[in-house]
Amino acid sequence: MRAIVYDPLAPANLRFAEVDEPAVAESEALIDVQAIALNFGELHFIDHARKPGEIPGWDTAGIVVQAAADGSGPPVGTRVVGLNFGGGWAQRRAIATENLAVLPEFVEFEEAAALPVAAVTALQALRALGPVVGRRVLITGASGGVGRFAVQLAARAGAHVIAAVGSPARGEGLEELGAAEIAVGLDGITEPVFGVLDNVGGPLLAQAFRLVSDGGSVQSIGMASNEPTTINFEEERRTGNRKRLETFMIRTPIGPDLQYLLTLLADGELDPQIGLRDSWDNISTAASALLGRSVAGKAVLRVS
Protein backbone atom coordinates (compact mmCIF):
# COMPACT_ATOMS: atom_id res chain seq x y z
CA MET A 1 0.00 0.00 0.00
CA ARG A 2 1.03 3.62 -0.41
CA ALA A 3 2.24 5.56 2.62
CA ILE A 4 4.22 8.60 3.67
CA VAL A 5 7.47 7.70 5.42
CA TYR A 6 10.14 9.60 7.30
CA ASP A 7 13.23 10.27 5.20
CA PRO A 8 15.74 12.80 6.57
CA LEU A 9 17.05 13.40 3.03
CA ALA A 10 13.63 14.19 1.49
CA PRO A 11 11.89 17.58 1.31
CA ALA A 12 10.35 18.29 4.74
CA ASN A 13 11.76 14.87 5.77
CA LEU A 14 8.86 13.07 4.09
CA ARG A 15 8.36 10.96 0.95
CA PHE A 16 5.99 8.34 -0.41
CA ALA A 17 6.79 4.64 -0.39
CA GLU A 18 5.18 1.25 -0.91
CA VAL A 19 4.90 -0.47 2.48
CA ASP A 20 3.40 -3.63 3.97
CA GLU A 21 -0.18 -3.74 5.15
CA PRO A 22 -0.47 -2.96 8.88
CA ALA A 23 -0.64 -5.72 11.45
CA VAL A 24 -3.98 -5.63 13.27
CA ALA A 25 -4.33 -6.63 16.93
CA GLU A 26 -7.53 -8.22 18.27
CA SER A 27 -8.66 -4.97 19.89
CA GLU A 28 -7.96 -2.90 16.77
CA ALA A 29 -10.03 -2.03 13.72
CA LEU A 30 -8.51 -1.65 10.26
CA ILE A 31 -9.34 1.73 8.73
CA ASP A 32 -9.42 2.72 5.06
CA VAL A 33 -7.99 6.21 5.45
CA GLN A 34 -9.83 9.12 3.83
CA ALA A 35 -8.23 12.14 5.54
CA ILE A 36 -5.25 12.86 7.78
CA ALA A 37 -4.27 15.86 9.89
CA LEU A 38 -0.80 17.21 10.51
CA ASN A 39 0.34 18.32 13.95
CA PHE A 40 3.20 20.73 14.61
CA GLY A 41 4.75 18.50 17.27
CA GLU A 42 4.92 15.35 15.16
CA LEU A 43 6.68 17.29 12.38
CA HIS A 44 8.93 19.49 14.52
CA PHE A 45 10.33 16.57 16.51
CA ILE A 46 10.12 13.91 13.79
CA ASP A 47 13.87 13.23 13.79
CA HIS A 48 13.66 12.29 17.48
CA ALA A 49 10.47 10.23 17.20
CA ARG A 50 10.92 8.28 13.95
CA LYS A 51 13.50 6.11 12.24
CA PRO A 52 14.00 6.36 8.46
CA GLY A 53 11.30 4.40 6.66
CA GLU A 54 8.79 4.58 9.52
CA ILE A 55 5.27 5.89 8.89
CA PRO A 56 4.40 8.97 10.98
CA GLY A 57 0.88 10.17 11.61
CA TRP A 58 -1.42 10.50 14.59
CA ASP A 59 -4.82 11.68 13.30
CA THR A 60 -6.94 9.66 10.88
CA ALA A 61 -10.51 9.65 9.61
CA GLY A 62 -11.85 6.90 7.40
CA ILE A 63 -14.01 3.81 7.04
CA VAL A 64 -13.78 0.54 8.97
CA VAL A 65 -12.85 -2.25 6.56
CA GLN A 66 -12.09 -4.87 9.20
CA ALA A 67 -13.80 -4.83 12.59
CA ALA A 68 -11.89 -5.70 15.77
CA ALA A 69 -11.62 -9.44 16.27
CA ASP A 70 -12.54 -9.15 19.96
CA GLY A 71 -15.96 -7.70 19.08
CA SER A 72 -15.23 -4.23 20.39
CA GLY A 73 -15.75 -1.12 18.35
CA PRO A 74 -17.83 -0.32 15.27
CA PRO A 75 -18.70 -2.75 12.44
CA VAL A 76 -17.39 -2.76 8.88
CA GLY A 77 -18.57 0.23 6.86
CA THR A 78 -18.71 2.67 9.80
CA ARG A 79 -17.23 6.14 9.30
CA VAL A 80 -14.80 6.81 12.13
CA VAL A 81 -12.03 9.06 13.37
CA GLY A 82 -9.26 8.08 15.73
CA LEU A 83 -5.78 8.36 17.09
CA ASN A 84 -2.67 6.24 17.25
CA PHE A 85 0.83 7.63 17.80
CA GLY A 86 2.24 6.48 14.48
CA GLY A 87 1.29 4.76 11.25
CA GLY A 88 -1.46 7.18 10.33
CA TRP A 89 -0.20 8.57 7.04
CA ALA A 90 -1.02 5.51 4.97
CA GLN A 91 -3.87 4.19 2.87
CA ARG A 92 -4.81 1.83 5.69
CA ARG A 93 -4.02 1.81 9.38
CA ALA A 94 -4.97 -0.07 12.55
CA ILE A 95 -6.40 1.81 15.54
CA ALA A 96 -7.40 0.52 18.97
CA THR A 97 -11.18 0.69 19.20
CA GLU A 98 -10.97 2.55 22.53
CA ASN A 99 -9.42 5.45 20.61
CA LEU A 100 -12.06 5.55 17.87
CA ALA A 101 -15.27 7.56 17.61
CA VAL A 102 -18.11 7.29 15.10
CA LEU A 103 -18.75 10.27 12.83
CA PRO A 104 -22.20 11.86 13.10
CA GLU A 105 -24.17 11.88 9.87
CA PHE A 106 -23.25 15.32 8.60
CA VAL A 107 -19.61 15.49 9.74
CA GLU A 108 -17.12 15.13 6.90
CA PHE A 109 -13.85 13.18 7.09
CA GLU A 110 -11.65 16.27 6.80
CA GLU A 111 -13.37 18.11 9.65
CA ALA A 112 -13.24 15.01 11.84
CA ALA A 113 -9.55 14.41 11.14
CA ALA A 114 -8.73 17.80 12.67
CA LEU A 115 -9.97 16.72 16.11
CA PRO A 116 -8.08 13.83 17.74
CA VAL A 117 -4.77 15.24 18.95
CA ALA A 118 -5.49 18.97 18.94
CA ALA A 119 -9.06 19.10 20.22
CA VAL A 120 -8.69 16.27 22.75
CA THR A 121 -5.50 17.89 24.06
CA ALA A 122 -7.32 21.20 24.48
CA LEU A 123 -10.25 19.51 26.22
CA GLN A 124 -8.18 17.42 28.63
CA ALA A 125 -5.76 20.25 29.45
CA LEU A 126 -8.63 22.62 30.16
CA ARG A 127 -10.18 20.07 32.52
CA ALA A 128 -6.86 19.78 34.35
CA LEU A 129 -7.08 23.48 35.30
CA GLY A 130 -10.26 22.80 37.26
CA PRO A 131 -13.44 24.94 37.19
CA VAL A 132 -12.85 28.00 35.01
CA VAL A 133 -16.29 29.69 35.04
CA GLY A 134 -15.71 33.41 35.53
CA ARG A 135 -11.96 32.96 35.78
CA ARG A 136 -9.14 34.37 33.66
CA VAL A 137 -7.48 31.72 31.49
CA LEU A 138 -4.40 32.47 29.40
CA ILE A 139 -3.75 30.43 26.26
CA THR A 140 -0.34 30.85 24.64
CA GLY A 141 0.23 29.83 21.04
CA ALA A 142 -3.47 30.48 20.65
CA SER A 143 -3.33 30.67 16.86
CA GLY A 144 -2.22 27.05 16.45
CA GLY A 145 -4.30 23.90 16.21
CA VAL A 146 -4.50 23.18 19.94
CA GLY A 147 -4.77 26.88 20.76
CA ARG A 148 -7.80 27.53 18.57
CA PHE A 149 -9.68 24.59 20.06
CA ALA A 150 -8.65 25.68 23.57
CA VAL A 151 -9.99 29.20 23.01
CA GLN A 152 -13.36 27.82 21.92
CA LEU A 153 -13.67 25.25 24.71
CA ALA A 154 -12.49 27.62 27.46
CA ALA A 155 -14.95 30.30 26.35
CA ARG A 156 -17.70 27.68 26.20
CA ALA A 157 -16.82 26.69 29.79
CA GLY A 158 -17.35 30.27 30.95
CA ALA A 159 -13.74 31.49 31.19
CA HIS A 160 -12.47 34.96 30.42
CA VAL A 161 -10.07 33.89 27.68
CA ILE A 162 -6.81 35.73 26.99
CA ALA A 163 -5.34 34.52 23.69
CA ALA A 164 -1.61 35.19 23.36
CA VAL A 165 -0.08 35.12 19.88
CA GLY A 166 3.21 35.98 18.21
CA SER A 167 1.95 38.71 15.91
CA PRO A 168 -1.23 40.71 15.25
CA ALA A 169 -1.86 38.71 12.08
CA ARG A 170 -1.82 35.45 14.07
CA GLY A 171 -4.56 36.82 16.31
CA GLU A 172 -7.07 37.30 13.51
CA GLY A 173 -10.31 35.39 14.07
CA LEU A 174 -9.67 34.52 17.71
CA GLU A 175 -12.16 37.04 19.05
CA GLU A 176 -14.87 35.34 16.99
CA LEU A 177 -13.89 32.03 18.61
CA GLY A 178 -14.44 33.44 22.10
CA ALA A 179 -11.28 35.26 23.13
CA ALA A 180 -12.08 38.21 25.40
CA GLU A 181 -8.56 39.62 24.99
CA ILE A 182 -5.88 39.10 22.35
CA ALA A 183 -2.29 39.80 23.38
CA VAL A 184 0.85 39.87 21.26
CA GLY A 185 3.32 38.43 23.74
CA LEU A 186 2.72 38.66 27.49
CA ASP A 187 4.32 42.02 28.39
CA GLY A 188 0.99 43.83 28.33
CA ILE A 189 -0.76 41.38 30.67
CA THR A 190 -0.58 42.73 34.21
CA GLU A 191 -3.57 41.18 35.98
CA PRO A 192 -3.18 37.66 37.42
CA VAL A 193 -4.71 34.63 35.73
CA PHE A 194 -6.20 31.50 37.24
CA GLY A 195 -4.80 29.10 34.67
CA VAL A 196 -2.52 28.85 31.67
CA LEU A 197 -2.55 26.46 28.73
CA ASP A 198 0.93 26.88 27.30
CA ASN A 199 1.83 25.66 23.83
CA VAL A 200 5.08 27.58 23.43
CA GLY A 201 7.48 26.76 26.26
CA GLY A 202 10.81 28.51 26.72
CA PRO A 203 10.99 31.96 28.36
CA LEU A 204 7.30 32.54 27.56
CA LEU A 205 6.34 29.66 29.85
CA ALA A 206 8.34 31.22 32.71
CA GLN A 207 6.66 34.54 32.07
CA ALA A 208 3.22 32.93 32.01
CA PHE A 209 3.91 31.09 35.29
CA ARG A 210 4.63 34.42 37.01
CA LEU A 211 1.11 35.58 36.10
CA VAL A 212 -0.66 32.68 37.84
CA SER A 213 -2.55 33.58 41.00
CA ASP A 214 -2.77 31.66 44.28
CA GLY A 215 -4.33 28.24 43.75
CA GLY A 216 -3.94 28.35 39.98
CA SER A 217 -1.89 26.25 37.61
CA VAL A 218 -0.14 25.95 34.27
CA GLN A 219 -0.51 23.05 31.87
CA SER A 220 2.67 22.82 29.81
CA ILE A 221 1.35 21.32 26.57
CA GLY A 222 3.97 22.03 23.93
CA MET A 223 7.38 23.48 23.17
CA ALA A 224 6.90 25.25 19.85
CA SER A 225 9.71 27.66 20.76
CA ASN A 226 12.17 24.75 21.00
CA GLU A 227 13.79 26.64 23.90
CA PRO A 228 14.34 25.50 27.51
CA THR A 229 12.49 27.12 30.39
CA THR A 230 14.17 28.56 33.47
CA ILE A 231 12.02 29.48 36.47
CA ASN A 232 13.29 31.14 39.63
CA PHE A 233 11.24 29.24 42.20
CA GLU A 234 12.74 31.19 45.11
CA GLU A 235 11.35 34.35 43.55
CA GLU A 236 8.01 32.60 43.13
CA ARG A 237 7.98 31.55 46.80
CA ARG A 238 8.41 35.15 47.88
CA THR A 239 5.08 36.04 46.25
CA GLY A 240 3.30 33.81 48.76
CA ASN A 241 1.24 32.21 45.99
CA ARG A 242 0.81 28.46 45.87
CA LYS A 243 0.49 27.33 42.28
CA ARG A 244 1.25 24.33 40.11
CA LEU A 245 3.21 23.74 36.92
CA GLU A 246 2.31 20.43 35.30
CA THR A 247 3.55 18.69 32.19
CA PHE A 248 0.61 17.71 30.03
CA MET A 249 0.31 14.46 28.11
CA ILE A 250 -2.84 13.32 26.36
CA ARG A 251 -4.51 10.46 28.23
CA THR A 252 -5.95 7.47 26.43
CA PRO A 253 -8.49 6.07 25.83
CA ILE A 254 -9.79 9.11 24.01
CA GLY A 255 -12.91 7.58 22.45
CA PRO A 256 -15.45 9.23 24.80
CA ASP A 257 -13.75 12.66 24.60
CA LEU A 258 -13.58 12.42 20.83
CA GLN A 259 -17.26 11.47 20.59
CA TYR A 260 -18.18 14.49 22.71
CA LEU A 261 -16.16 16.80 20.48
CA LEU A 262 -17.76 15.32 17.36
CA THR A 263 -21.18 16.07 18.85
CA LEU A 264 -20.18 19.71 19.34
CA LEU A 265 -18.87 19.79 15.78
CA ALA A 266 -22.06 18.29 14.36
CA ASP A 267 -24.17 20.79 16.32
CA GLY A 268 -22.18 23.75 15.01
CA GLU A 269 -20.79 24.53 18.46
CA LEU A 270 -17.15 23.79 17.59
CA ASP A 271 -15.25 25.03 14.53
CA PRO A 272 -12.41 22.76 13.33
CA GLN A 273 -10.43 25.82 12.19
CA ILE A 274 -8.85 24.17 9.17
CA GLY A 275 -6.35 26.64 7.76
CA LEU A 276 -5.02 24.40 5.01
CA ARG A 277 -6.79 21.75 2.93
CA ASP A 278 -4.97 19.82 0.23
CA SER A 279 -4.20 16.38 -1.17
CA TRP A 280 -1.70 14.23 0.66
CA ASP A 281 0.26 14.21 -2.59
CA ASN A 282 1.45 17.64 -1.46
CA ILE A 283 2.58 16.50 1.98
CA SER A 284 5.99 18.23 1.81
CA THR A 285 4.46 21.59 0.95
CA ALA A 286 1.82 21.25 3.67
CA ALA A 287 4.38 20.20 6.29
CA SER A 288 6.66 23.11 5.41
CA ALA A 289 3.74 25.55 5.65
CA LEU A 290 2.77 24.27 9.09
CA LEU A 291 6.34 24.35 10.39
CA GLY A 292 6.77 27.82 8.92
CA ARG A 293 3.73 29.00 10.88
CA SER A 294 1.88 30.12 7.77
CA VAL A 295 -1.14 27.95 8.65
CA ALA A 296 -3.71 29.34 11.08
CA GLY A 297 -5.22 26.31 12.78
CA LYS A 298 -5.16 22.81 11.37
CA ALA A 299 -3.65 21.38 8.19
CA VAL A 300 -5.79 18.53 6.81
CA LEU A 301 -5.03 16.41 3.75
CA ARG A 302 -7.29 14.19 1.62
CA VAL A 303 -5.94 10.69 0.99
CA SER A 304 -6.14 9.43 -2.59
Characterise the protein shown here.
The chain has 304 residues and is an alpha/beta fold. It folds into two domains: 2-114 and 273-302, Medium-chain alcohol dehydrogenases, catalytic domain (Quinone Oxidoreductase, Chain A, domain 1, Alpha-Beta Complex), CATH 3.90.180.10; 118-247, Rossmann fold (3-Layer(aba) Sandwich). Helices cover 26% and strands 29% of the residues. The protein contains ten helices and 15 strands. The strands form three sheets. Strands 3, 4, 5, 6, 7, 14 and 15 form a seven-stranded mixed beta sheet that branches. The chain has a six-stranded parallel beta sheet with strand order 10-9-8-11-12-13, with helices on both faces. Strands 1-2 form a two-stranded antiparallel ribbon. Strand 1 and strand 2 (14-18) form a beta hairpin. The mean pLDDT is 96.
Q: Layout of helices and strands, plus pairs?
A:
Blueprint (H helix, E strand, L loop, with lengths): L1 E5 L7 E5 L9 E11 L1 H5 L1 H4 L9 E8 L12 E5 L8 E5 L3 E3 L6 H5 L2 H14 L6 E5 L4 H12 L3 E6 L8 H4 L3 E4 L8 E6 L3 H9 L1 E9 L12 H6 L5 E4 L7 H12 L7 E6 L3 H9 L6 E5 L2
Helix pairs in contact: 4-5
CATH class of the largest domain: Alpha Beta
Mean pLDDT: 96
- Tell me the span between the first and last alpha carbons: 12 Å
**DSSP summary: helix tally:** 10
Number of spatially distinct domains: 2
Count of β-strands: 15
| Overall spatial form | globular
Structural class: alpha/beta
Order of helices and strands: EEEHHEEEEHHEHEHEEHEHEHEHE
Main β-sheet description: 7 strands, mixed
The H-level CATH homologous superfamily of the largest domain, spelled out, is Medium-chain alcohol dehydrogenases, catalytic domain
Question: Portion of residues in helices?
Answer: 25-40%
Radius of gyration: 19 Å
Strand content: 25-35%
Which topology of the largest domain does CATH recognise? Quinone Oxidoreductase, Chain A, domain 1
CATH architectural category of the largest domain: Alpha-Beta Complex
